[in-house]
Structure formats: C-alpha cells, structure tokens
Model the fold of this input.
Amino acid sequence: MHVHTIIEAGWVMPMAPKGALLTRHSVLIDEGKIVAVVPTEETQGIEAKEIVRLPDHIVLPGFVNAHTHAPMHLLRGMGADLPLMDWLQTKIWPAEGKLMSPEFCYEGSLIAGAEMVESGITCASDHYFFSEDVARGLTEAGIKCSVSGIVIGFPSAMAKNTDEYIQCAEALFERFANDPNVRVTVGPHAPYTVDDDALIKVRDLAHKHNARIHMHVDETQTEIEGSLKQYGVRPLQRLQNLGLLDERFISVHTVCADDAELELLARARASVVHCPCSNLKLASGFSPVAKMMALGINVSMGTDGVASNDKVDLLGETRLAAMLGKAVCQDTTQMKVADMLYAATMGGAKALGWDDRIGSLEKGKDADLIAVDLGNIDALPVFDPASQLLYSAGREDISHVWVNGKIVVKKQQQEGLRPLSRENAQKITKTWQNRI
Ligand SMILES: [Zn+2]
Done:
C-alpha cells in the first residue's frame, strides 16, 4: 500500500463515533482524502511520501466556524463597552457605510481566514455582503467556506431592495455551483430586518437550490418583544408559519428562545449556532444550550464577527460554552467534553449540510484536520487528552493544520528564554503521573 501522508499521533479523536479516543493511531491521507485511521503499529508495511510524527499531539477534524462576518475583521476593536444599539448606530453602521465594497470584503476575509486557519478552523460559514469576494478571501487563506446570499430590509452598496438581494444570491449559487471548496446559503439577516414578503422569497430560493437558510434569530429580548408587538407571535413561530423551519434552517444565537420555540426547532430538525462570546460581550443573555442538546437539536459553534468577540478562536469559544452552559443549567454533568468537541466539528458540518465531506475523520472524507500539542507546559500532565484539549490547551497549541490533505499551517516550537524547558516539564509531570 502506498499513500501520500501518514500522520502518527499520540491520540486521534475522529468524532465518529462521538467521543471516541484512539491512542497511538495514524491517519492515512492520499489525494486529499482520508484513506484510513489505524493503530500506528499497523502502518509499518505502508509506504508514504511523508510521515509526520506527533507523539505528544491529539489529531482531530478541523473546527467548523458555523457563524461569522469575516470582513468585519477590519473593524476589530471599535466601540467597546457601548450598549448594543449605540454600538451599531454610532460605530459599526457608519464605518460599514463608509467602507463597504468588494475590496473591503475581500481583504477583511483574507485577514479573517488567516486568523481562523491558525486557530484550527478549516471551514467557516460567513454572513455578509459581497459574498463572492468573501469566498475569495477565505479560500485564499486556505479554508473552505459557506457564504451567504444576504437579504436585509434596507439598501446597501450591494443592492437596493429585496429583489436585488435575491438576484445577488441567485448569482452566488451559479458562481459556486461547481466549486468543491465553497457552498452557498441564503442569509436573511434577522426577523426584525426582513419582512414577510422577503422571507417567502428567501424560503422559495432555498427550496429551489436545496440550500441552508442562515439567520440570526432570538438574539435579544427586545427582538422577541418587537415580534410579539408587530406580528403577534415570537420570531421562531413566525418563521414556522412562513414555512422556513426545516432541517435546512440554521438559527444563529437563539439566546432568548422559550420552551415552545425550542420544540419547534427540534421538530423541524433545524440547527443552532451558539456564539457565547458575542452574546456575553453584547449582554444579550445566556443561551439554553443544555436544553437544546437534551431535545436532540444539532448544536454547532460560531465566533460571530470580531467586532463583537473580538477574536475567531473556536477552541476558546467552545471552552467558554462548556463552562457557561454548566453554570446556566447548574449541572456539571451537562455540556460534556465529547458533546462540545462534536459541536465544534461535526455539529458545524451537519448544520451546513456538509457532513458528507467534512466534520469527522472517516474513510473517504476530505483530509481537513488539525494537530494540537498536549506536550506543552499548559496541558501537562495528560490524564484525559480530550478534556485537556478543551479545558487546558489553547489555540496557540494548534501546531499543524491540513485542508484537503495539504498542510496550510505548521508552527515551530518556540525557543528563547524560558524558566522551565518543555522536556523538564514533561519529565516532572510524567514522574508524578506514573505514581497514581
Ligand atoms: Zn452575527
């Protein structure tokens, strides 16, 4: 047998089945696809152009950032500590009004994509204007993406009205129909910025292309109150009445959903994107994620844009989600490590309808994977690799990233002045670990 690459890892977390952890296993890659995941001792007779030895590392599928606004990377740091509407009206919207253009979207997305891939994100679902240019920036940075044909109830530099937004979305479907690295969703902005007529057009367009609908929903209590006042029902009930809720629906945030709305999402087999950093920074509230998971709703993770985060660190986001979720439901047994790492990988792939190609390390899937170094002082000693990946390691420990079997990030171990070397730290912790 001959393959292009063998990655020999200390541990492999394939995400299929959920929670599986394989010790001293290797991932075999050829022609950009995963050929097999096997015990390393069984790889001796296999020839490879390249063997990557990572004995201290855990290898897993690349993270899927299921909700972001990549061009907003060029607005990072604006308006900290302002109330939400002040922040939007005095900082974000005026800046966007000045800068919005295809070039702004391309260059912002290139920067965002570079930060994302260094953070282990190998696929991002974006929601913004000029999505063809967003896709160009993200793919040039080396990652796959799903981009949105945005629909919003006010004019922009891109389109004047609903019909023009729908035309732009149609053009995206045509543009990326044969691109293996880019998919397209329909992106109505939010229930309070898109009227019923436009939502019906969104539904019909999504049905026509069998595409996902990617929408901010139930983000704040103000949104719920506005919907009750204007439409007499809560946002998700309105979307259900208009025929938008099914397995293709991606509900971003969903912070203020009540039990009846969660039931609607579960029955529709829709997905949720959880973005805790953004929800906390904008004081939107606490998403009932443990309840969603208990109802069987597919939960994925998103960073939102950096204007409200202010970084695209999906591992950090998932760690925060786990701890926050436990506190919200006051139950340490919820938001389990396996569920959270699954949400950050397969959950995103499922939300995007891309789980046929990405999200897990299985034979025939795209070789989109990352290696995280658990031999650094911040993760030692290693008693439970999956738990320590989530709770101890950080994105700085992500040492290698492959997309379609090609290495796109490889970080060197840093030399320089340190109080304790990596080797000494490993020696000390190993000695005590072996005494248990
Ligand atoms: Zn957003």
